[in-house]
Request: fold
Amino acid sequence: MMTSKLLASSAVALSLLHAPAGLGQPRTDAQVAPAGDARRQIAALMNQVQQARLKGDARFFEQYVTDDYLGIHGDGATETKAQLVDNVRSGALKYEKYDMREMSIRTYGDAAVANTLVAVKAIEANGKHVAGDYRTTWVWVKRGDAWRSAAFQATRIVP
Reply:
């Protein structure tokens, strides 16, 4: 379903911060951010995902999603980075509300997992209204000094 695909995209994002100057160079332990810093960075990115969804900011997803990103929607449909960016850019789903009410973040070195509870209210391009609560999982990977979203999965909470 288009709605499920676009909701899964949200969550996206994705990945984030800035590409490092020393990309591809080995890092020492002193260059690795403490877990608390990583959690704060991911939390900031998740807030940026929320704003990008509300504003229809495709550039955010272009920058903060890995090229091999895979989103899985509540109906099992998948979405690539290119599809995500195109869907956001075209306005196939316009968000009136994208409210992350819960968020937990766990870090594992250069990877992080963010789980959220999101309340969504949106309108599809065909005029259909979409509303509901979703549990999402975001997988973030750190490439150099930059976090990027590598995967997303959404599950609708059935009332």
